[in-house]
Specification:
Elements: H1 2-8, H2 18-32, H3 34-37, E1 41-47, H4 49-52, H5 62-72, E2 78-84, H6 90-100, E3 107-111, H7 114-119, H8 123-139, E4 144-147, H9 157-174, E5 177-179, H10 191-194, H11 204-226
Helix pairs in contact: 5-11, 6-8, 8-9
């Protein structure tokens, strides 16, 4: 349209087209810099090796697969930030949550506790650490999904019962969305098919299966983060 008009009025002075030219340049800049044209919704995935993508090639861990799922399901503006640290416990998460929550973060997925279980750390200690993490997020008024894990049976019935209450009670206290198990798609029937050889971390197919189950919950988090 602009090129046609310019051809019809080519006898007009150059200055007559300056406003149109400037608008065209501005539009081109916005097109080349999509971050300026469309705001991102940045979700911090805050966890351990299950979040970080241990043992998997780039693009096959939880963060890239979940981001791709969100884009395929209408959240083109969603960006997942990989805040997973292999081997991290709830104590490690507490020590780094403040500097992880920079001004760009719009929402948080908290998925910690697996390494605490491996080390036999008390549920009371885990509760204190997760409470501190959720408190730091609440201070910034950010929406959060708290992802739990299946209650273990190897530490006895009392520990199992205490652990079973850990995540839902904290989620209720802080108004977080409780997602019962970060590895919900994996069970006894598909364990060998969906796990890496170490028996601890999902393979790429296992991650994909978990993402399919958890995707709608994270999509809701993105929508709340936009508000």
């Amino acid at each position: 349209m602009t090129g046609t008009s310019a051809q019809r009025t080519s006898n007009k002075p150059y200055g007559a087209f300056a406003p149109v030219r400037n608008l065209t340049i501005a539009a081109s800049v916005l097109f080349l810099l999509p971050g300026l044209a469309t705001a991102e919704v940045r979700i911090l995935a805050f966890g351990d090796s299950l979040t970080q993508g241990y043992g998997l090639p780039d693009g096959e861990g939880f963060v890239p697969q979940m981001e791709a799922w969100l884009h395929e399901n209408g959240a083109d503006d969603a960006v997942l930030v990989n805040g997973g640290v292999s081997g991290d416990t709830t104590a490690g998460g507490l020590s780094r949550i403040d500097w992880s929550l920079d001004d760009s973060v719009d929402g948080v997925i908290v998925a910690l506790g697996g390494n605490d279980l491996l080390r036999g750390i008390s549920v009371g200690t885990m509760r204190e650490n997760l409470d501190g993490i959720l408190s730091a997020i609440a201070e910034r008024d950010l929406p959060v999904v708290l992802a739990g894990l299946p209650a273990p049976s190897n530490y006895g019935a009392e520990y199992q019962e205490e652990f079973r209450d850990l995540y839902p009670s904290l989620a209720e206290e802080y108004g977080a969305t409780h997602y019962p198990s970060f590895i919900a798609a994996i069970n006894q029937d598909n364990f060998r098919e969906l796990m890496q050889g170490d028996g601890i971390h999902p393979n790429a197919d296992g991650v994909s299966a978990n993402v399919e189950l958890m995707g709608p919950v994270v999509l809701d988090l993105v929508e709340r983060a936009r508000d």
